[in-house]
Amino acid sequence: MNHDVYWLWLKGIEKLSPLKINKLLTKFNDAYEIYNASYNELLDGELIDKTIADNIYNNKDLDKAEKELELLHKNNVSIVTPQSVSYTSNLKNIYNSPIIMYKRGQYELTDDDVYVAIIGSRKATQYGIRTAWKLSYELAKKGIVIVSGLAYGIDAAAHKGALDAGGKTVAVLGCGIDVIYPKSNEALYKEILKSGCTLSEYGLGMEAAPYMFPTRNRIISGLSSGCVIVEAAEKSGALITAKLALEQNREVFAVPGNITSPESYGANELIKRSAAKLVTSYEDILIEIVPSYNKKENIVKEEKTDMPEMNEEENKLYRIILKGTNTIDEIAVSADMSTSSVSSILTMMEINGIVYKDKGKFCIL
Predict the structure, then answer these.
(1) Is the model's pTM score more than 0.70?
(2) 17 and 113 within one domain
């Protein structure tokens, strides 16, 4: 029988938390051994109390777990357990490591890859979005796998930067593996599945709830060798992730921001307290997490990082904006096009992360 069934069975035992399962796994090799353990073996060592031992020993029905596994396969979902090859060493070594992670997408986690989390505010400024995209893009070009949480703002920009670079990205969800939250990120979710993957501790159909996000944050930081905070307000969830990363002995980085912006308070404070290393380029991150990286050998003179492919009309408007022509009316005159046509094209360019609008003027992202 597929041993995944035993992990799903174990996860369903009443009052048996991931923390208690991890305690059992210090004695038993896997869920199959726990399933076949005698009552005395379960109680030996006082890893769990009598009530939980009763729940395990008296509940050996695998029917529910088998049906769940069948449904997961129908929905193109696999599971990652401590027994899986794709359960990375980084995750195994954190406190309260996940017992089951549901996974969707083409990418398989591996110890051969280096993971960096890029996270931050949902209410990100254009500066934050541009910075997250740029760092992610450049790290992905160097083969780093970008990890984030598929939220609005910084998370979405980080995922998109990796995808635009032709790289891989992992979205760790605070909801069921098949639930897209926020719904506006549906297109991004589907794009991630093509070359990356989504991960969640929560099974099919589980809607997002506040308690899910702090617990998923330990996976974002735990999977990664380094955690980059781009923007974070004073009480941002990204600061929880930064704290977890420090507790997990991960490298923590922060991008300095505008001291008058509330969204920069958290990142600036981390730098001020020496809790995070200041980041001004992707190389600041690589030097810390990839020992073999040599900054001097990798200096490349570029006028600008490559952007997503553009059609002829988009290229035309891009060059006009690059020269300093910013309003729709000015761009329309320079391009010899109607204002409505220019507006439509610029909207698509904004969606694709090529330009952004600031106080009525369009700028290059």
Answers:
(1) yes
(2) no
Q: Is residue 28 included in any domain, yes or no? A: yes
- Token couple for 65: 């777990």
Q: Which residues of 168-178 are buried (b: 16+ CB within 10 A; e: fewer)?
A: bbbbbbbbbbb
Q: What would the two tokens of residue 215 be?
A: 């617990």
Residues in the chain, pLDDT under 70: 1, 291-308, 322-325, 365
Same domain, yes or no: 225 and 331: no
pLDDT tens readout for residues 225-283? 999 999 999 888 899 999 999 999 999 999 999 999 999 999 999 999 999 999 999 99
Asked, for residue 221, whether it belongs to a domain, the answer is yes
In a domain, 110, yes or no: yes
Cis amide prior to 182 (ω within 30 degrees): yes
Q: Do 19 and 59 belong together in one domain?
A: yes
Cβ atoms of 10 and 35 within 8 Å: the answer is yes
Q: Please, which residues bridge with residue 119 across strands?
A: 229
Q: What is the predicted pLDDT for the residue at 365?
A: 64
Q: Which two tokens stand for residue 226?
A: 């380094």
CA distance 330 to 81: 57
Distance CA 132, CA 146 (A): 11
Span 77-102, pLDDT tens digits: 999 999 999 999 999 999 999 999 99
69 and 128 both lie in a single domain: no
Range of the domain at 341: 312-364
Token match 């890893």: residue? 47
The first and second tokens of residue 146, run together, are 């970008």
Element containing residue 363 per DSSP (H, E): strand 361-364
CA angle (100 as vertex; 96, 105 as ends), nearest 5: 125
